[in-house]
Amino acid sequence: MNVLCTMAEDLLNNWEKKSAAHQKEYKRFLQRADKNKALKQLPDLHDKAFEKVDCLQCANCCKNYSPRFKTPDIKRISKHLGMKEGVFIEQYLNLDDEGDYVVKTKPCPFLGTDNYCSIYEVRPSDCERFPYTDEDVLLKRPHLTLKNSSFCPITYFVLEKLIASK
Questions:
Q1: What is the pLDDT of residues 101-114, one digit of tens each?
Q2: In 67-124, which residue ranges form alpha helices assigned H by DSSP?
Q3: Which of 95, 101, 148, 156 is nearest to 125 (CA)?
């Protein structure tokens, strides 16, 4: 095993505790980061994180949180399921405090016991883009990034690497 693999494994060891301990540091970094420098690093760090973390072994996002279901998502998914949009909304979704549709239950009703998504091909755009580690959302929405770093090892990995490269 090469040194880089060992370093990445060490970084991901106990990542939940480390992330909880580093929240203030992440917040400071996100407020003060050289946005251009960070944005240039994101695609590579995103790819490296996905090489190290198997989402199917984790699925924390699907188990604990809900994406927003926007109108195009609702139309696409309800059609895929052969349901009327209103029935789909009534069966699976609630409006949250911000006026967004989110799933009624946790874990997500479309998450299988094998951590596979039963609607993966037509999943909400939030799911497709998650964890936003290859786009400017990581920097533009620090509150979301901090929350994601508490349950997503990929977000944690990318933040740690960004901070280490300052």
A1: 999 999 999 999 99
A2: 71-81, 85-92
A3: 101
